Amino acid sequence: MIDVTDLHKSFKTRERGEVRAVAGLSFHVRAGEVYGLLGPNGAGKTTTLRILATLALPDRGTVRVDGRDPVADPIGARERLAWVPAEGGLPPRLSGREVVRLFARIQGVADPDRVADETLDRMGATPFADRPCGDLSTGMKRRVVLARALVHRPAALLLDEPTDGLDVMGRRDVLGLVRSLAADGRAVILSSHVMGEVERVVDRAGIVAGGQLVAEGTVAELLARTGTATLDDAFMALVAPP
């Protein structure tokens, strides 16, 4: 469903010169799978997600979302994916219902008001859907953001720190939603720095350092490879400099 092959991306910065954000990264995500994309700050995770989401161009390499090339066919790729960045970007004066209905129309959804309301209900957002987004709690906003992203029923979902700023109950609810979305047959990439929650929700994880994949497997396989008891410890063993 999601294929990344030999992906490269560099940036030129005033302070550091050329920075290689992604350096030959390859991984694949199947339909119905939650794949954890993990790495320290600056490892290239967000850059990779932005390329998949058609928001950045690779220097070389290929990516595919449900068979569509985000570079050659960005519209086709966008029809098949949902991108949920760490920052929600909700307009404060519009209600959640107005936002999701607007995006349903932009996406060309048939019967957009009905589908928007059904999606808000699936995300557990109906009780507060008519409040201005500026008045919502962080957890409420995350549910509206997820509904906005999913209103066109995409095949792939890209999540960058989806539980950032949430309390314990909010984190649990969002992770439950992530699992249910994968159970519907979606391919889900989850990028997070909270290893405990990643450990509970992912089917497989790829550990990225220096823009490259340094390890990949189920949580049990990563623990066995590193001889550790938690994903936190396995992560540190794999990304710590020699």
Key terms:
242 residues, alpha/beta, six-stranded mixed sheet, three-stranded antiparallel sheet, 9 helices
Report on this model:
The protein is α/β, with parallel strands linked by helices. The protein has nine helices and nine strands. Strands 5-6-7-3-8-9 form a six-stranded mixed sheet, sandwiched between helices. The chain has a three-stranded antiparallel sheet with strand order 2-1-4, covered by helices on one side. Helix 6 links the parallel strand 6 and strand 7 (187-191). Helix 3 runs parallel beside helix 5. The chain is globular. The two termini are 35 Å apart.
Give a brief rundown of this model.
37% of the residues lie in helices and 26% in strands. It is an alpha/beta fold and 242 residues long.
